[in-house]
Specification:
The structure is a single chain. By secondary structure, this protein is an alpha/beta fold. It has 2 domains: 2-258, P-loop containing nucleotide triphosphate hydrolases (Rossmann fold, 3-Layer(aba) Sandwich), CATH 3.40.50.300; 277-513, P-loop containing nucleotide triphosphate hydrolases (Rossmann fold, 3-Layer(aba) Sandwich). The chain is 36% helix and 27% strand. It is built from 16 helices and 19 strands. It has a 6-stranded mixed β-sheet, sandwiched between helices. Strands 15-16-17-13-18-19 form a 6-stranded mixed β-sheet, with helices on both faces. Strands 1, 2, 3 and 5 form a 4-stranded antiparallel β-sheet that branches. Helix 7 (198-214) links the parallel strand 7 and strand 8. It starts with a strand and ends with a helix. The model is unreliable at 1-12, 33-43, 45-54 and 265-278 (pLDDT under 50).
């Protein structure tokens, strides 16, 4: 199909080939009625919950008019629950519109969130073949690209290790590498790069631009406005199921930011963004001395952590940064006693609550409401305590009526909201957040940063694993830079982030010369 771009969006004059054409499309469901799987029906039966007598039609998307052009990277932004994932499912054919007309000219490959479709007991290599064949690609074709996928993902020996040992960032690397290398005509990335590190984000951006020069188009859903502005040709802003604006990234982002309300500072005492030594106490909350964790692969010993030493004092907000596979998630699992160090000494003084990735511990068949109680009990809290904080958790998550829907219907951003809200409201001594805010929208990240600072009145320490250097600079009093299982840098958050950025840029320049 060849039409003038101006015919659709009024921002480009020259004719371009339309690959995606949506005219007044909408998708609906009936509240009070769910076409769930058998497991969900059984859970609902045994819970004996009263369903609403009168169901009504709800439209998560309606009156959507958009076009996508050959050779472009089209970004989709918007708050959690705005309909971004639903739109991607329509384009990929997982859902069908209840009204309107949708034309997609090309074969669609979609990567919904990190590692979706991966089987944790299989190795990375086995999952490449599994995912490729699920996309309808012949095994012979996958074998031609397997080495390129391995090299691009930069997983090293982990390629032949079960994926249950991968961090979320490593899953993101492999998922993107599979989707991008198997010659898609239209590639959809729905929040799939949010846990990627800085260097891989740049590498993925270059790969996307290479893709659109050979294929038809890339559709990118992201909460990183900076990433969207730098790498997308146009943006679509979705808000509560409708298109608010379509246009140049800088213009759409400006409009979107204008709708994010400024939060009034609370009068209560809290950790200031300009960090001061007076907020840090002398008592040691976490102490690690020469801690090491290893695993065997093909009779060889690999070190996830080796001779790691550090101390965390009461009152500190510590950011853990580094490339995917640097040992950050392993460190968090050790602090929460999921893993035990093979050598060295580790002391943790206080009750620890960990949010290891968004939605960890959620039962997808249960509602958000039920998962609040489930997670509370998993943290060892009595039901009465959870009941006391229930309204605070729901209010902070901003999920509204979605709290009564099964978690399997949530976007990754919605899971991030609920997971953080549960863990933060229950006020642990030591709060560990491992890449759990990577899918949060701008407004929620702002709320979360203020909540973390507020928590410091009662908590002993907060430990945050994040690929968002701005978030670490803003919220953390200190940063620990991990690389290849060892501590590369430890000190003031802004200084360590500066060193990390310089190292990433230096690696990038070396790669260009090679």
């Amino acid at each position: 199909m060849l039409l003038t771009s101006k015919h659709i969006n009024n921002e480009i004059d020259e004719p371009k080939e339309i690959v995606l054409d949506a005219k007044n499309i909408g998708v609906s469901f009936h509240s009070g009625y769910r076409t769930d799987d058998y497991k969900s029906h059984m859970i609902n039966f045994f819970k004996k919950k009263k369903e609403a007598k009168d169901s009504k039609v709800v439209w998560p998307l309606r009156s959507i008019n958009i076009a996508g052009y050959k050779g472009e990277i089209l970004g989709i932004i918007g708050s959690n629950g705005s309909g971004k994932t639903t739109l991607c499912k329509l384009i990929s054919g997982i859902l069908h519109p209840d009204e309107g007309k949708l034309d997609v000219d090309g074969k669609v490959s979609a990567l919904f969130s990190l590692g979706m479709g991966f089987k944790k007991e299989l190795t990375g290599r086995e999952n490449v073949y599994l995912n490729g064949m699920m996309l309808g690609i012949e095994k012979k074709k996958i074998s031609e690209y397997i080495d390129d996928i391995h090299d691009f993902a930069e997983l090293g020996a982990f390629m032949d290790r079960p994926m249950k040992y991968y961090s979320s960032g490593m899953k993101a690397r492999l998922g993107f590498s599979v989707a991008a290398h198997l010659e898609p005509e239209i590639l959809i990335l729905d929040e799939a790069l949010n846990t990627g590190d800085m260097a891989f984000g740049r590498k993925a951006a270059a790969k996307m631009k290479d893709l659109v020069s050979k294929a038809k188009m890339v559709i990118l859903v992201t909460h990183s406005l900076r990433y969207a502005r730098k790498n997308c040709d146009r943006l679509i802003w979705l808000d509560k199921g409708v298109v608010r604006e379509v246009g140049k990234p800088k213009d759409v982002i400006k409009s979107y930011k204008a709708t994010i309300p400024e939060r009034k500072p609370k009068k209560r005492k809290k950790l200031e963004l300009k960090k001061t030594n007076t907020e840090i106490k002398n008592s040691i909350v976490v102490k690690a001395e020469n801690v090491s964790v290893s695993y065997r692969m093909k009779k060889e010993v690999h070190w996830a952590l080796k001779n790691v030493s550090f101390e965390i004092k009461e009152g500190e907000v510590v950011g853990i940064i580094g490339h995917n596979g640097a040992g950050k998630s392993t460190l968090c699992k050790m602090l929460t006693k999921i893993l035990a160090p093979e050598s060295g000494m580790l002391e943790v003084n206080g009750d620890t609550t960990a949010l290891l990735g968004y939605g960890t511990g959620f039962n997808s068949q249960l509602t958000g409401e039920d998962n609040i109680y489930l997670n509370g009990m998993l943290l060892g809290l009595p039901k009465k305590r959870v009941e006391q904080d229930y309204d605070k958790i729901v209010d902070f998550s901003d999920l509204g009526s979605s709290i009564r829907k099964p978690v399997k219907s949530y976007s990754s951003g919605m899971r991030a909201r609920l997971g953080f809200s549960i863990a933060a409201t229950l006020q642990p001594d030591i709060f560990i957040i491992d890449e759990a805010l990577s899918t949060g929208d701008a407004e929620f990240k702002q709320k979360a940063s203020e909540k973390i600072q507020e928590m410091m009145e009662n908590a002993k320490a907060v430990i945050i694993v994040s690929h968002s250097m701005r978030f670490v600079e803003q919220v953390c009093t200190r940063a620990i830079w991990m690389e290849k299982g060892q501590v590369r840098g430890d000190g003031d958050a802004e200084e360590i982030v500066k060193q990390y950025r310089e190292d990433v840029n230096a690696q990038r320049e070396r790669a260009k010369k090679e």
